[in-house]
Amino acid sequence: xxxxxxxxxxxxxxxxxxxxxxxxxxxxxxxxxxxxxxxxxxxxxxxxxxxxxxxxxxxxxxxxxxxxxxxxxxxxxxxxxxxxxxxxxxxxxxxxxxxxxxxxxxxxxxxxxxxxxxxxxxxxxxxxxxxxxxxxxxxxxxxxxxxxxxxxxxxxxxxxxxxxxxxxxxxxxxxxxxxxxxxxxxxxxxxxxxxxxxxxxxxxxxxxxxxxxxxxxxxxxxxxxxxxxxxxxxxxxxxxxxxxxxxxxxxxxxxxxxxxxxxxxxxxxxxxxxxxxxxxxxxxxxxxxxxxxxxxxxxxxxxxxxxxxxxxxxxxxxxxxxxxxxxxxxxxxxxxxxxxxxxxxxxxxxxxxxxxxxxxxxxxxxxxxxxxxxxxxxxxxxxxxxxxxxxxxxxxxxxxxxxxxxxxxxxxxxxxxxxxxxxxxxxxxxxxxxxxxxxxxxxxxxxxxxxxxxxxxxxxxxxxxxxxxxxxxxxxxxxxxxxxxxxxxxxxxxxxxxxxxxxxx
Length: 505
Ligand code: AMP
Fold this sequence. Notes:
Helix content is 30%, strand content 25%. By secondary structure, it is of the alpha/beta class.
């Protein structure tokens, strides 16, 4: 019997001597070696008594070995549950308890603080460090390098990814084999990946972008990966001349543009730069093309849906948009109150349906019912618009929408105007409580390195292009914007920080 995800991603590579991963220090791992490692891990996990459907929580540094734990879980029919390395022990106890994980693999440095978590949840605690050593690897060393793949069906669960949970409790998104496989197939084809590609991989592998989008595509196409522990500009500059493709969050691209070595010569061998997980500013898109001759391909997706839209590979990659729904995926813009589809050009809630959409939130049937309609459409919580040519524009998260004096204000529109002002590197516009208007607009501005912006001049200037009700009540300079590991601006942190600014005005 088959295991569709394992067969497609790993099964074809069994015993293959072609290089799969090359690390920053130049060492390499072939497909065959990687899969032998995975097989040994699968033995350890099943020797613990784990059986199909059991969860394996993993909070360790990015390494080939940590990726092999993902392969081991798929092969043994277990549910892989990667966790952000920034989470503290108390945060981790929620994930382990909520998921009912039977094994928790952590960094040796966290072992002491996580022992009580493992004890109260009855999870088996194992360790693995950034070099792949630790108690888990020790147990694996004596195991056979072949493992008989556990049969699974396309609808069986393969992974839990917890959402970042900026509003309320983090939710465990249940992803099936087919959610992951169908998306990897569509993207490999859409972005023309083949065995001749070399992917520069500097994203974390506890998130959908670095784990599923990047590695699943590489595995499916059989291409090689330069596997970097994190984004490190020196390493990127060193590896880019031999790579063909890179996937990154927008901050990767702004940081590369800050480097004078980044130019056409350096990127001459590259075929494709892909961006996602946070909005890529149109300005960055333009500058990037001027400097390198490459047009970044922007796509849109989320933990619950994998990837839903993409700019075209052939055809116009339009700055400030996320392109078209991917083949086989439906996307519509609806009214948040009535759920009715809105006319083309109107801003509304983005809803998505297709084989990419997750099965629901673990242990949260009410939340699942609120966001996943019975007809299969998932209410993403993002606001968007489809332009006359069919390109999808993301306007922001629904919860970031500002309602001031009864008017809807979309922060992105104001941010675009502010970003174009002299002396502005970037901006974030948020709504903060106001006694008269309910909420009012506040703009946080990061100055560019070259010159400090003149806030009065900016205010005068934007008054000409924005309606009065949209004008920020105040402009405040900040040295930088708070961002999470995926480069997303954390507007909830800013809202908390400036909550009382107008409280008594
Ligand atoms: P996550 O579940 O952490 O991957 O976050 C998904 C969210 O990131 C989406 O719901 C969007 O709000 C945002 N996002 C992802 N890709 C883009 C993009 N290309 N442009 C704007 N926002 C994006």
